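Folds vary. Our protein:
___
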Amino acid sequence: MTEPDRPEPVRDALVDLARAKGVDTWYRAADGTDKPVSRTTLTRVLAALGVDASTPEGIRQSLERHRREQASHLLPPCVVARAGRPARLEVGTDSRVVVDLENGGIREVPAGEPGEPGARTLPGDLPLGYHTLRATSADGWVSTPLIVVPDSIPTPERRGWGFATQLYSVLSDRSWGMGDLGDLKSLARWSGSALGADFVLVNPLHAMLPAASSDHSPYWPSSRYFADPVHLRVDTVPEYTALTGEDKATVDGLAERADRVRERVLSGADLIDRDVVWQLKRAALQLLHRVPPTSEHLRSYREYVAREGQELTDFATARALAEVYGPDWRTWPGPLRHPSSLAVRAERERLAREVEFHRWLAWLVDGQLADAQAAAEEAGMSVGVVHDLAVGVHPGGAEAWALQDCLATGVTAGAPPDAFSAQGQNWRLPPWRPDALARTGYAAYAGLLRRVFRHAGAVRLDHVMGLFRLWWIPEGSAVGEGTYVRYDPEAMLGVLALEALRAGVYVIGEDLGTVESGVRDALAARGVLGTSVLWLTRESTASGEEDPHGAIVPAHRWRRQCLATLTTHDLPSSASWLSGDHVELRHRHGLLSGPLAEEQQAADLLRRTWLDEVARAGCATEDADGAIARLVSLHRYLARTPSVLLAAWLPDVVGDVRSPNLPGTSGSYPNWQLPVSDTHGRPVTLDRLSTAPLARELAAALAPAASTGGSR
């Protein structure tokens, strides 16, 4: 998808250069007007792509270089073809062209027709996978990656429902101060077996930056390739039962300290503190690591290390280096700032024991993730665990260090100002470089998807529109001074479809906010489900986003291929929406765009409009004025939509009035640190959640929407 044609006020070399590199020179604002991108922004964004546009001469030379490269390259940087569809390819007239298949073997590509000797047609029966395309040239063979992808991803064959929650917030009597993978298993077993749920959707479980340098947001991780060991259930680690003597006493003492941490959270005295929990777990896991493994465990571990390869080694090395030199690799000594340096190799050998410890932790987490999905399937869930993939990573974390050659520097990703965020958003994430992705055959992107998909029934992709374009903001600039940079959607969606098909998972795209025309249709055509949130489901503006002032969309007009819910982790809880407390909360934190009275009036109108629609649709209960009754009625209405997946916000079953996150705040609100709590703000355990009467009422409201036939 390229920048749409539009008359340019000044047609010059900079505009041509930007367009050639996939950088938009204008964008459509939320009010429908076209905004030009400044020359300063274009220059800085091009610099982040390694293109000199700082002077007229630099622009001219960069443009000429680009044109020469386009003309001289026998093969493109990467070729993506759909299985079953012959693909046209332009090569040299006398070239021999072959395909080296992923699993061995060579396929010859026939010569072109007499009238078109340079045109070749890739066979439509090439197998799915990552192959290599080779062609002869005057200097010998040249090659490029060839990825053969499926047309689409399978979608659920029947409707299903489940709970959505932030895993860290769901504590049980065995939690060490925050929810863990053992609690995820329990949640899946309870909701699947007792309530008939088909899935449980959790926040990203990616590895976070060590220590308090992180803001605890699961959407700002250190690495998405591997999950954070803070989620481990310590007493189910294989070596736990083999502990003896002083080591066992030490671990027992750590468990007692963890009990006190948990009780302070559940009493309301403390917030969830991931760093404190990790200090306790790390100390225990270090002792467990000293226990000699059984031959079976050792074999499993070695197979895992071999499978994960260099990516695991780089991740474990980064974790070990962070413990010595600080959590942000950009502050490390210069020779250590690139993973391939000799200095890093020397430090890896010096810190071999620590590196091995972090490899072992990654293996443990992988095993417990597998156990959680297995427990969900055993409980009868048709989908299982739905994991969440963050759109990017912390610029100082392990992934940004290991993949820095594929990430842009000097810019951050975000979103332009729109109807829901008048100032726009700066996520402080380094974006993928589209040219580097293509040049490397999308290997880093594919490897990321492969790992997140491995132990999932489905995966939610945060800001799925980023597969088409991302808003790049030059560092130090205002959010509105950015521009969109284009990605190759055929490649991004193709690799996504290939990895999802191989893993057997469904894919859910978070496509809320500003969505370019045609994007939702393109996603749906490839089998990527969308996301619909009741409070935001309004008629669209000319720019494609939900208009907060537009008419609500009745149930029968909702999309079928989507996940439908009342709220999300970035929005107020349902109880807060129904009471109107969320407006006062945003006012206290200076987040309202207008006077408090006007915002309250608008919120009241929205609530009344939706409740009237619920009543009109015949979904209201007899006691329609009670908060619980209204919540049940809203879920009944959700079940009236054709949406294939329906999600209830787990904290709603106890009337939690707080959102886990209040976007736009930093320090003034306890983002990502709140346990699930009842209407009065009292934290509740997973045991209490599972016995809450409202859980069964919400399940009953959603379950009739799911047919009993079909299989995954």
Confidence is low (pLDDT under 50) at residues 707-712. Residues 13-72 form one domain. The chain is about 35% helix and 15% strand. Residues 224 and 640 are 36 Å apart (CA to CA).
